[in-house]
Write the structure tokens for this entry.
Amino acid sequence: MAEAEKVDEDIQDLRDRFLNSEFDEVTFEIDGERVAQYALACGETSPKFTDPGHDDFQAPPTFVSTLVGRRNMPSDFPDLGGMGMDAGKGVEWKAPVRAGETLTGRSHLHDIYTKTGRSGRMVFLVTRMELFDSSGTHVANADTRTVIREKIRA
Amino acid sequence: MPDTVSNIGEVEFGSELPSFAPDTSTDNTKRFGKYVGWDSPRFTDHEGARKEGLPGAIVPGVLSQGFLGAMIHRWAPDAEIIAIDTVFRAPVLADAPHTITGTVTDIDEDEGTVEIDITITNEAGENRVFGTATAKLPK
């Protein structure tokens, strides 16, 4: 988000309290069959992604979006009064994710911002899971963008 | 531009990637549900999805994002997708034809990277998912 952008006071308060504080850590065993079936369902054709026996077998970069933590929000994050919906996914790929690896995912709130439309204000929460392999190499970031359409208060 | 590219020198600014028809069938969402996750009626069964207030079964967002990545790999088999950001604007209905398109919007020959705008569109021409990707190609 651009620094010069005006931020609502309540959102700035949430940013100050919650951004960049880790709230979840979980491990994932990367299963080759799951990777291959994911790739086939997506329409990948390269054996690098679809054949667990391939010399360079690895997960398509978007695979990390399927790795889900125990929670997607800090336990003490306030109820904003509306239903959260999945507004998008982002991936930053840094190194191959391979079958048999154990990844550690650490999650934090990466951004909080708003957009205002005809139906009122929408709050966007970007949860980032940073993924590391067993040697500590940072292999990917997986972002989930949740939008909450606030209820109009009487 | 050819249907596939093998290096950054073959990529032309503004060119369109070959369009790709993703498999939105409930057979595919069931397979995805069985092996990957998102095994819920809202993704695998039209009747079950309607009971949840949806117009029918929908494709999981993570699968839609995967379709976009697959299109880039089909076009540039040696590409490494180093970033991809997708916006779920509206549901992608299962068992409905959709088309994925991509357009090259920037080329950095020094870095060997291309920026691509990507979109999933339904038969009515409505954009359901869109986003951008950065892919690194051999020089």
Observations:
- The interface with chain B takes residues 33-34, 37-46, 49, 60-63, 65-66, 68, 86-94, 143, 145 of chain A (CB under 8 Å).
- Chain A has a mean pLDDT of 92.
